[in-house]
Carbohydrate ABC transporter permease
Amino acid sequence: MNKSLGSDIFTAFNYTILTLFALATLLPFIYVIIISFTDPTEYLTKSLVLIPETWSLSAYRFIFSTNAFVKAMGVSGFLAVVGTVLSLIVTSALAYVLSRKRLKGKTFFLVMILLSMLFNAGMIPNYLLVDSLGLIDSLWALILPALTSAWYVFLMKNFYQEIPDELEDAAKIDGCSDVGVFIRIMLPVSVSALAAFGLFYAVAYWNTYFSGVLYINSDSMRPLQVLLQMLLISASQFGDPSVAAMMESEKTVPPQVIKMAAVVISSLPIVIVYPFLQKYFVKGMMVGSVKG
């Protein structure tokens, strides 16, 4: 089809506006990265640094020299890895069980899961529950309450229902139990959904903040986002008193540069993982979302 001059102008205008919006959203991130690599002396002597004359790793060396930040990264890494694996196991297993027609009381369980999406007990009941289980000041308090998502369970349930029953029957004829069918048949065919949901779970665990503030009292067990928030508010509230003293005595690295470097480090793992799982997003999120 031939395009008119007005259509070409409109298309060019749209691309220009969208490009400007994209640059507007990217500039703050680029500025954070640039400041984190800026030489401390240059940052202190200039009111605005867009392209530093001297690049430096001082802020990153300082951050990784502090035990508090390294421990916080280890805590968040543990939450992201262990929490994601356990969440995928629970979500996929629960979805598979609920997708079987022969499950007794299936409607009851589905209604209970649906109610959990509509109603929330609130902060105080959740805290009392975690406290009664003896999980206060434990990393499991950051994993078990967020172990699964009702929405992901429903999506995966619909996906498992779309798999032909003949596939399961053939596996059972070959001697597979229900657990064997789930592990050998269902999990391999749901890799795309698991990859998509796994990234969402990993991001949620990596960004754990409110639960860390609510349930964790020890400085050595604080997640990275809690420590980062304390750093962004004030360098003197970095968590570990020894680290605060180091930051106060560190004259060559301004607190603002350290904050920028901390933001970059905390965002880097998810940015690295995202491109490898991006191809599963559309397929993984659409799977089980349409019935017909």
Q: What stands out?
A: Residues 235-240, 288-292 have pLDDT under 50 and may be disordered.
